[in-house]
Fold this sequence. Notes:
- There is one protein chain.
- Helices cover 69% and strands 4% of the residues.
- It is mostly helical.
- It has a domain at 53-256: CATH 1.20.1330.10.
- Helix 2 (43-97) packs antiparallel against helix 3 (104-125).
- The longest helix is centred in the N-terminal third of the chain and has 55 residues, at 43-97.
- It is rod-shaped, with a radius of gyration of 38 Å.
- The model has no long low-confidence stretch (mean pLDDT 85).
Amino acid sequence: MRVTQSMLSNNMLKNLSKSYADMNKTMDQLSTGKKINRPSDDPVIAMKGINYRSQVTQVEQFQRNTNEVHNWMDNSDAALDKATQTMQRLRELAVQASNDTYDKGERENIKEEVEQLKENLIDIANTKVNDKYIFNGTNTNTPPISTDNPEEFTFNTDPVNIEVASGTKLQANVDPSTVFGGVGEEGNILADIDKFIDALDRETGSQEDIEASIQTLDDNINNIINARADLGARMNRLELVENRLSEQAIIAEQTMANNEDIDYEEAITELITQESIHRAALSAGSRIIQPTLIDFLR
């Protein structure tokens, strides 16, 4: 086979072009920090990258969900704390009022404070966070206690379940019936307080009614404490879920980085090697391509 000058030139140009392409690819990797910049660079890495990125996105979504659960639980716990304090103050007043030496004026003063505490309890039951009523189940757009008519209760007991991990859901809310449902036949805590208010009236109430209200208030306080204990147990579980998600996020990010990110030391070494090879090819090419006939005739 006869090798011509044009064949040498074409082969040299083809090899130089490939050398430029290799250096350009390495430069792109160094600029972006990624092994591939388009799926055609390496389809296997690209496909794995899609799966790993999906996993990272899923973990991030679950972490956002846990923040939402935290919002519900933290605000519910704070509201239950205030409700407990309110009920304990009502009990203190009931114990004071049970003293038979209290006259009508003193009991009237207690009655006024009890009525204010009742209003405070209504405000707690109608706690609103992020434009949602947190003590009315899934019916978050309606207050559980009507402000116009406090005797109207519309407790929704459906749980608000939020997915915090694959296949794992946590109840974010507190069942309002266990907190504000009361212990009497009326089925609401305000009716129990109203009985205490009626008992404070010297004309219609009696000492026995006030003492009965103390027991009723104790039962309501226990209901709130039990609801708060249940909430605390779920908050502890949420913390465990958060710790697991944090570990999963780190692992997912590291796996994705190992799949896509370049080793800078290796890439820089590769670029230097390619530059050396390219210079050697240019030098060798200048010697292989012989001078033309015109150069000899000069």
